[in-house]
Amino acid sequence: MSDDKVTIEQRENGPLVVKNLGDLRLADGAEAETRPVMALCRCGGSSNKPFCDGSHKENGFDSGASDVADKDKVRAYQGAEVTIYYSPLLCSHAGECGRRAAAIFNTKQKPWIQPDNGSIDEIREVMQACPSGALRYSETGGDGEMLADGAVSITVEKNGPYRVCNIPVEAGYWAEGQSEKKYVLCRCGKSGNKPFCDGTHSDEGWSDGS
User: Residue 1: pLDDT band by 50, 70, 90 thresholds?
Assistant: First the structure.
């Protein structure tokens, strides 16, 4: 194994330790200065976010995950030419789908995903923009495909999780269709699917104070 491989390690009841990362983006889009080893807060309490300041020791942060296997249900929305697959367990509620293709992805319609209401180019744009990998698509009848770029990076989402691209992480449970190419890690400390985000920050209105 190369000594300069980018990795993410979970410290039990503590931070995420990231090694050899060259691309860390802050919520305002600025590129953060990186170090060979960095501890990123995941308890939600650090006063130096996104970096750990030891607050997890004071606030009793528990890095354990709940049993989420029964919630791991991928839903398929079949169109004439394209089928879109959605994993609620992985969704971080970033809302990129509704912003980019509201006719296809609209929670006010039933079903909320209607592949025939837009073009394949719109669907591909959404697949690329979805930070969590909760959305995949295929030609109807084929296997689901998720789109991700080739960058090795972590981006801090304002009032939300870490968006991770192409970095391996060890986890006790990987959802159906989940990929190391693109996923989101909990930053608020409230997810039931740690280390991954399950959208709880959005449901509870968590703020990172930025």
Answer: very low
Q: Would you state the structure tokens that stand for residue 84, as one six-digit string?
A: 């879109």
Range 192-197 average pLDDT: 95
* 3-state secondary structure (DSSP) of residue 46: coil
- Give the 3-state secondary structure of residue 61: coil
Task: Spell out the domain ranges in the chain.
Answer: 1-210
Identify which of 203, 204, 194 has the alpha carbon closest to the alpha carbon of residue 43: 194
Beta-strand ranges (E) seen in 93-198 are: 135-139, 153-156, 162-165, 182-185
Of 196, 198, 194, 167, the residue nearest 180 (C-alpha): 167
Short-list 184, 179, 101, CA closest to 145: 179
Contact, 62 vs 13, CB < 8 A?
yes
Name 137's bridge partners.
84, 145
Residues 6+ apart with CB under 8 A from 87: 72, 73, 74, 75, 133, 134, 135, 175, 176, 177, 178
State mean pLDDT over 86-103: 96
CA–CA gap between residue 113 and residue 99 (Å, rounded) = 13
Residue-level pLDDT at 80: 94
What is the tens place of the pLDDT at every residue in 133-158? 999 999 876 666 677 778 899 999 99
Q: Give the whole-angstrom CA distance, residue 13 versus residue 162.
A: 17
